[in-house]
Amino acid sequence: MTAVLIVDDQPMQRFGFRMLLESQDDMTVAGEAGNGSEAVRMTAQLLPDVVLMDIRMPGLDGIEATRRIVASGDRTRVLILTTFDLDEYAYAGLRAGASGFLVKDAQPEELLAGIRAVASGDAVVTPSLTRRLLDAYADQLPSGTAEHRAEDPRLTALTDREREILTAIGQGWTNTEIAERFHLAESTVKTHVGRILAKTGARDRVQAVILAYDTQLVKPSA
């Protein structure tokens, strides 16, 4: 059973989400919050599997609430809902540690699939879409020299092959594409990806893409 905390400042929006989630045999609504501060407090109390997080709310917004929830170190994952497909809010949410985002007008089955994916540890946003987001906001990414990149502690534990695969992840390649490029079995690629996430502390594949940009293994498109 996946426990979900619904966070939205619109009561009717929360009601709609609750009705949808309660219609599922494998989901339960842990609670509802009307703003970011409530979301942080209730997440700490209830420890839901997934927080369905709105962004634009009075007081503490969904971005900062996501950042605080992720920073707490609990197993709760955040799925952000945004009004627009590609905007600065989605970008900021991913940077804050969200495991993905969906637009608010997504089909009910898409929302349910997204919640299930996030609860199981997957990312809802495809790597290629994450790359588009990061390219769009490249001017906000950290800058640094090659020497700085080489010294980044998140990369020091990686083998040469793992760095190659992290670079490919950052370029939006799927496991199948990586397997074909490096002449590896797809199961071997999955093993490498798992090790990369474990060694770097990245929560999921989305965060691995962001790491590749942060450390300049991948650079934004011109």
Automatic annotation (TrEMBL):
<dbReference type="Pfam" id="PF00196">
    <property type="entry name" value="GerE"/>
</dbReference>
<dbReference type="InterPro" id="IPR016032">
    <property type="entry name" value="Sig_transdc_resp-reg_C-effctor"/>
</dbReference>
<keyword id="KW-0238">DNA-binding</keyword>
<keyword id="KW-0805">Transcription regulation</keyword>
<dbReference type="Pfam" id="PF00072">
    <property type="entry name" value="Response_reg"/>
</dbReference>
<dbReference type="InterPro" id="IPR058245">
    <property type="entry name" value="NreC/VraR/RcsB-like_REC"/>
</dbReference>
<keyword id="KW-0804">Transcription</keyword>
<feature type="modified residue" description="4-aspartylphosphate">
    <location>
        <position position="54"/>
    </location>
</feature>
<dbReference type="InterPro" id="IPR011006">
    <property type="entry name" value="CheY-like_superfamily"/>
</dbReference>
<keyword id="KW-0597">Phosphoprotein</keyword>
<dbReference type="InterPro" id="IPR001789">
    <property type="entry name" value="Sig_transdc_resp-reg_receiver"/>
</dbReference>
<dbReference type="InterPro" id="IPR039420">
    <property type="entry name" value="WalR-like"/>
</dbReference>
<feature type="domain" description="Response regulatory">
    <location>
        <begin position="3"/>
        <end position="119"/>
    </location>
</feature>
<feature type="domain" description="HTH luxR-type">
    <location>
        <begin position="151"/>
        <end position="216"/>
    </location>
</feature>
<protein>
    <submittedName>
        <fullName>Response regulator</fullName>
    </submittedName>
</protein>
<dbReference type="InterPro" id="IPR000792">
    <property type="entry name" value="Tscrpt_reg_LuxR_C"/>
</dbReference>
